[in-house]
Amino acid sequence: MNGTQINCKDELVKEFGGSKEFINSVSQALQGETDCPTNLSNSLEAAYQVAECDYESNTNRGEKVGWLYGSKSKDVLIGLMIHKRVLLSLIEPTGLSRLLLIRRWAGINDPTKKMGHRPT
User: Of 8, 10, 12, 17, nearest to 58 (Cα)?
Assistant: First the structure.
């Protein structure tokens, strides 16, 4: 292994955590490889490890896309975070008028329904 590969592996560990199986999978995906794992028990063990609550601690992934741990109302915070991300993804590329149109089609806060008008 040369210095570049070691440095790359260190960066992957810092970004995604210490699971060797997960790091190998990420590395293969980044290189465009789509090989299926040959040992299913290793994959299951890696899935359990990555799913643990403290796996994202001290990683870039945990800071960027991780959930809010250590809060008694983390479910509420997570729900609000997801809701915010969805709304921002709707507003940013399409604009506020598109969001209002989507809400109108969904029947959410449609001002025409309150006035008794019907869309034509």
Answer: 17
DSSP string, 23-47: HHHHHHHHTT--PPPS-HHHHHHHH
Domain ranges of the chain: 1-66, 68-120
Q: For position 107, what pLDDT does the model report?
A: 72
Residues 59 and 15: beta-carbon distance below 8 Å: yes
Residues 38-60 have pLDDT tens digits of 777 777 888 877 777 666 677 77
- pTM recorded for the entire structure: 0.42
Residue 72, helix vs strand vs coil? coil
Dihedral class, residue 17 (left if φ above 0, else alpha if ψ from -120 to 50, else beta) = left
Phi, psi angles (nearest 5°) of residue 39: -110, 100
